[in-house]
């Protein structure tokens, strides 16, 4: 990103409140907020540039196995299809769960709406410990048409990621892989764990990948601290 950018406070002066009658206090506070929003946008751009500039990650040498909706036995490299980038989301829907995690379900619902577009640029797979048929049945129930579900064969993948808990439940994992020739490497993994959460906040990435929370952050009430999505209302 260019180092010769117009100061955010100057850009914020171009703003126009869309409705008449705003008080001077509102106008002043909104311009100050807008300057911070511009700085946030610029910082997010720098972070994205840093992410793309990461050195090559570790080669994935373990032969993790997966099963797709057709019953085919696949390795990690097979999940790429004809793409060189693979986006994976391991969701909380293990065989011990009667129903999937509501938070995972909420996020995947939003991703489903973008999946067909994303898959023009990168492979996108949803991984789960439940049989793939069980995952697909839930997807059909939700009306998800564009997500591709894959079953992890055995628990090596979840165990090696450190997301399989002693009680048989699991944490989610968002991981991006890159394929170069015959090698598959880690490109990026979400690593903001619970230990890194700030006081009074749930653990989350930055930027927040969940459209639900990003939208609620625009409201006067915000996301709050005691409300979470449900599978049904």
Question: Explain this structure to me?
Answer:
This protein is 32% helix and 16% strand. By secondary structure, it is of the alpha/beta class. It folds into 2 domains: 1-53, no CATH class; 65-189, Glutaredoxin, CATH 3.40.30. The protein has a 7-stranded mixed sheet. A hairpin with a 5-residue loop joins strand 1 (65-67) and strand 2 (73-75). The relative contact order is 0.14.
Keywords:
single chain, 233 residues, alpha/beta, Glutaredoxin, 7-stranded mixed β-sheet, 6 helices, 16% strand, globular
Q: What proportion of the residues form beta strands (DSSP E)?
A: 15-25%
Report the structural category: alpha/beta
Which shape, going by the Cα principal axes?
globular
Give the strand line-up of the largest sheet.
2-1-5-4-3-6-7
- Helical residue percent band: 25-40%
Question: What is the domain total for the residues?
Answer: 2
Please write the string of helix (H) and strand (E) elements: HHEEEHEHEHEEH
Q: What is the count of DSSP helices, taking H or I runs of 4+ residues?
A: 6
How is this structure best summarized?
The chain has 233 residues and is an alpha/beta fold.
SSE layout:
Layout: H1 8-12, H2 24-52, E1 65-67, E2 73-75, E3 85-90, H3 102-118, E4 123-128, H4 132-142, E5 149-152, H5 156-161, E6 173-180, E7 183-189, H6 211-216
Parallel strand pairs: 3-4, 4-5
Antiparallel strand pairs: 1-2, 1-5, 3-6, 6-7
